[in-house]
Amino acid sequence: MRAVVLREPGPVENLELTDLPLPEVKPGWVRIAVRAFGINRSELHTRLGLAEGVTFPRVPGIEAVGVVDAGGDFEPGQQVVTMMGGMGRTFDGGYAEYTLVPEGQVIPFRSELPWEVIGQVPETLQTAYGSLTTGLDLRKGQALLIRGGTSALGFATATLAKDLGATVFATTRQQDRLDILAEHGVDHPLLDDGDIAAQVRKIVPDGVDAALELVGTPTLPDTLKATRVHGTVCFAGMLSNQWTISNFYPIGYLPAGVRLTAYGGEADDLPASVLQRHLDRIAAGEASLGPAKVYSMAEIRQAHDDLEHNRTAGKLVVLTGRAEGAAP
Questions:
Q1: Is 30 buried (19+), middle (13-18) or exposed (0-12) by CB count in 10 A?
Q2: pLDDT digits (tens, 9 = 90+) for 162-220
Q3: Which helix (H) or strand (E) covers residue 153, if one does?
Q4: How many other CB atoms are there within 10 angstroms of residue 203's CB atom?
């Protein structure tokens, strides 16, 4: 099979498209014929040497979509998604024509959407859904701020939040992306000038009810200031590649009464029913994924370089070459 191997941390040149043996099925594991996989910040962190617990050489990739090839209690040909659980870190991940994963992190679905569309969904939906439910407990009628709105996760979160009946604020650092946010349902697109709290409080003087921090620790203090007393900020992303706080002093750092949580989930945190409903709504034109850029496996270095330098809005997806036309 063809696979992308990261020999060791470093520049994009360390990603090599090569031939590897087909992974052998073992008890409790499922071999998936991968049709597409998303590119994530997690894999960028792995390539840059920022991820912990990774051994090399390694096939990266924390998610993949495709069909069951062998193993487990699934019928061969069953459409599935898989994500997390050590993929691309402690065992080989989704950057390949086949991947072998524990059965417990395989989620079945049925859809006739093209694989490049389905490939945008798994990890993004899981994190958006978990952040809004577990991380923020967002309710109908509440105001939500998404810091880092033109990321794939930002678009997915906005879609789910609007479906819940929330009013959505979302930020971008690029003027030409404000219209993209508005086109995808954001009520208040905001140009990030470093003082989003002031912009938010001109619209809602008490602050938003909830905020999702996707940029990282550089913008977290401002996001906290944009949130009302007894409101909640959920830290779920690190677009800035910065996720630690030096000399953290909670009383001095956190505004009085504002709650700070975090979210990082696994495959079993995304119910199959939620995945199926989301795919069905996309197919019916009732839900938007936001923009995406599609690559071939031979373009993996370009995809990583585009992600690292923030050249595109939305999700980056790679087709393995086995995906032709609509699924399956």
A1: buried
A2: 999 999 999 999 999 999 999 999 999 999 999 999 999 999 999 999 999 999 999 99
A3: helix 152-164
A4: 13
* 22 contacts 33 by C-beta, under 8 angstroms: no
Angle at 29 between CA 23 and CA 33, to 5 degrees: 50
Beta bridge partners of 33: 67, 98
Cβ atoms of 4 and 37 closer than 8 Å: no
Asked if 307 and 328 touch (Cβ cutoff 8 Å), the reply is: no
- Strand spans (E) along 84-191: 98-102, 106-108, 143-147, 167-172, 188-191
Alpha carbons within 13 angstroms on the beta-carbon side of residue 281 total: 16
Q: Are strands 29-39 and 315-319 parallel, antiparallel or unpaired?
A: antiparallel
pTM as predicted: 0.91
Length of the chain, in residues: 328
